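Reading a protein record of the kind used here takes little practice once its layout is understood. Each number in the token line that follows is a code from a learned vocabulary of backbone shapes. One such record is shown here in full, so that the layout can be seen directly:
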Amino acid sequence: MLLTLIAFIAALALLIAIHEWGHYRMAVACGVKVLRFSVGFGKTIARFKPKHQRPGQDTEFVIGMLPLGGYVRMLDEREAPVDEGERHLAFNTQPLKKRALIVAAGPAANLVLAVLLYALVNWIGVDEPRAILSPPVAGSLADKAGLQAGDVVRQAALAGDDLEPVASFDSLRWVLTRAALDGQDVVVDVVRGDGRGREVKLPLSSLTLREPDARLFRAIGIVSPLSRPVMGEVMSGGAAQKAGLRQGDVVRRVGPTEVTDGQQLRELIRASGQSGRAAAAEWQVERAGRLLSLTVHPDVQHDKGQPVGRIGAYVGAMPEMVTVRQGPLDGLWSGAVRVWEVSTLSLKLLGRMLMGELSLKNLSGPIAIADYAGKSASQGLTYYLAFLAFISVSLGVLNLLPVPVLDGGHLMYYLWEAVTGRPVSGVWLERLQYVGMSVLLAMMAIAMVNDIAGRLG
């Protein structure tokens, strides 16, 4: 809990500071006087003024107690009277181009930060599961296309594009996610146990599901990387212990079904309780080189209201891992490409939610973000940096939306001014502010409900 809180606050403070720093640096570069640079709201816990500031600047830097936002306050005749001698330093007297640059610099700073963070992850390297497929879900696209357990995916691409190397299972999932949401087919180049390569086309354009969730990947059929069906720690008093299963046992068969993967075994166990009553099954396990037959009678528990089978043991070994690392230029370029892909995907998802084609349940709020922050921090530095990069992209994209009160809303005003030759009137500004606040509050309310529902579920 403490790690989650620290990771969440650190992420918020960094991303907000970078966003406001973008506004601040561009304002200074454009010759606008900055009165205050604040990170956080509420009671001031720290403030200072640098002794040496640029000509015309007298900026106070402030840290507030609540790291839920920030602001850059500039000299502006709309907020307070300005001396005639400093009028040329006021924000509202600047040419349209400079005002637009100052407003756009905040989101741009977040996007640049995301590129650097993704690049840093690429340079440091991260351990990810190797792209070795577990048994495809029965009846799925992968199953019908002939993919098998143990297939190693070497390359993948959207149908019609050149094949690109697949560095890990996570890379493969990213390709499948983007293709499925865009309704495009994917071609994968796999190597089977015989050592020969073959290309397999997955017709993702035929999918009716467009929600980026577990159901989508089950329909595709590629759910998890291959892992050995090994028994981990066995809990005292559970069905596994009662059946005589031990840590290290390799499960070869459950009833008539041959078992080749940890995820497959977990699904067989869960499915055994779907009727509300789990029947005993004969398991064939390998222990110290010998094959044994054990009768396992799973317990029935409820997961999100649905009956599932449980045996009281950890099931499945860690998949084979590979270190994904890139050089200086490749890592930086890959970081820029990832920011572009995440940005465009985020905009598509938002657009589909507005059109009613995608559930609003995909909106996440501070509870979910804090949870992700804690989990990524506990996994290691590179995972936390990747989390920061993703949230930084989201913050940059969100602020560029043409919603009044956001930076994108101000840019929308400037577009109107550029087209008509006159600024938006004060009356309309006030009305649009109310609309913008209503939209943001509605989005926050939906996100909070989703977070709470997710925690309760």
